[in-house]
Amino acid sequence: MTDRACKFRHRRSVMRALYVAIAGIPVIGMGCSQAAAAAACSVIVPADMKGPQPRWLGTCAAGKAAGVGVLRVGVRAPFSLFFGRVVAGRPQTGLIMLASGTMMEIRGVDDTGGVIATDGEHLAEQDRAWADAAAGARLVARRFAAAGNKGSAAYYACWAHRIETQRPE
User: Which of 42, 66, 85, 154 satisfies CB 3.0 to 4.6 Å to 9 for a cystine?
Assistant: First the structure.
């Protein structure tokens, strides 16, 4: 998917969300049971990701976020996003994209949510962060597509495309 196609699809999904909000129609996304499960799934939010309503969009095991996915913080775009792998509710490897536009490669967070950045000396660590981030965005895009939410599916597919094609040298 090209960047231009991503921008167009994102714009269309934003317009759809505005229409839905104005009309008072409930947004159909992951489904009520999955949305309730996502809310009950605990995850440590990195301290840099300030904002309301953090939500894990990925799998949950024993009440904690697990596997690859996306942690979204905020009520509406621009969101702060973590794309990557979480183990027992703790972000392990991936990318943080702040609403301000700042991007961070991480290799974990401490108990208080403090970010542990990747070490620029270890290429394998950076490779893992980018691979887990792309896998998380792709997984969430597929889940939204399966639920019939084309706008959100396109939004996360575009993020996956950006992650896969715009890694700095």
Answer: 154
Helical H segments across the chain, by residue range: 3-23, 32-40, 123-146, 150-165
SS3 state of residue 16:
helix
**C-alpha separations of 110 from 18, 44, 47, 91 in Å:** 37, 9, 10, 9
**How far does the chain reach from its first CA to its final CA, in angstroms?**
21
What SS3 state is found at 25? coil
Cα gap 128→9, rounded to integer Å: 28
For residue 119, what is the DSSP state? P
| 118 within 8 A of 127, measured Cβ to Cβ | no
**pTM of the model as a whole:** 0.77
Structure-token pair, residue 127: 């490779």
**Which backbone phi and psi does 93 adopt, to 5 degrees?**
-140, 145
